Automatic annotation (TrEMBL):
The keyword Iron does not apply. F-type ATPases have 2 components, CF(1) - the catalytic core - and CF(0) - the membrane proton channel. CF(1) has five subunits: alpha(3), beta(3), gamma(1), delta(1), epsilon(1). CF(0) has three main subunits: a, b and c. This is ATP synthase epsilon chain. Belongs to the ATPase epsilon chain family. The gene is atpC. It is a peripheral membrane protein. It comes from Saccharopolyspora griseoalba. Residues 94-121 are annotated as: Disordered. CDD domains: F1-ATPase_delta (cd12152).
Amino acid sequence: MANMSVQLVAVERLLWSGEATSVVAQTTEGEIGILPGHEPVLGQLIEGGVVRIKTTENDTVTAAVHGGFLSVTGDGVSVLAEDAELSQEIDVAKAREDAKSEDEQARTQAAARLRAAGQTD
């Protein structure tokens, strides 16, 4: 099976980089799935979205992503997020607390963190 180079980057750090067989992300135009050989595309990531990367080792890297862009070129895929958290880094109890916030943005981000961590909203 063909592979592609993928980078998941937030403003403050590189979260994951490696070879993958697919990427699924939520953009302002809807959910998009990327496979090796995909045509070049640039998409704006939604606030409070989830990105899933299927690695060549058949693992899934999942992250809550808050804004940014998805760029697909002949060289690979770059997910450039304003803010992002890998699923294993998410404090589920804090996310559940944040989901009750009066701040809509905090609730949106909390819902994405819970989805990325495999929890229900």
